[in-house]
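name: query_chain
kind: protein
chains: 1
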Amino acid sequence: MNTMTTSPNCDITLILATCSRTKEVEDFFSSIRSTPEDIRLEIIIADQNNDNRLAPIIEKLPARWKIVHVKSSVKGVCAARNEVIERISSPIVAFPDDDCTYEEGAIANALSLFAANRSADVILGVWEGFGAAFPPRDFLKKENRYSIFKKGEMFVQFYRAEMVRRIGAFDENFGPSPNSRYPFGGDDSDYLARAALAGAKIYRSSKIKIRHPLQNNVPREKIRGYGITRMALLKKLRYPLWFKAANIFYPLAKIVSSPKKFVYYFNMFYGRAFGKQKERIP
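structure:
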């Protein structure tokens, strides 16, 4: 990570790791076309596709954007990010998913928030599913090493480049990949938690709004896999016993408050309390 440099030529770098998706990638780029022209935008595309499906999309991107298109030699979201992360040349960095979209003003608001809050190392946005309403209230609140696990997915995370340098590479044991020990995710929580544990000052703002598809009809094995991953992550990062216990018993409390989601929360509880790594989907 020592070779990472920042340059006044760009204001923000977006690292987009992508595989197998075309329309979703096109939708993402469409969602940021309204970014003001005075914002100098760098987009690093870690392209894991075996074909050239992205070429027609990239050709149509605004000439004012700095596009770095890297054909990744690896499979897996963390491995792909690690392959390009040292190419960052901006003071602010984000890692959008290849199936999310930014609401209008998201990038400009993120930059304004960092400028207005010099102590902020990380700023999180808020997200909802497509078509859902965002909470009407406006807020900027401080997060901590415990609260970040709630809706702190990778696609809402915006970092100062200095903090990315401190955190280092993504842990390739987590996240979607044919080589991952925990392919159900955890990469987003791991990176953000490592920032928090390193002393980062983390805030969340309702001014950064992002859309991401909701998961419906999630298979039992996958729900349990989420639970297994969460506990493996807490063990790796040495979170205290009380927080591990809270994570195990949280789904039981949700069963009481949301009985219609009994199957989902029971399997989450089972995965966190009794799940074994062998239950993961290859």
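note: Residues 220-236 form the longest helix (17 residues).
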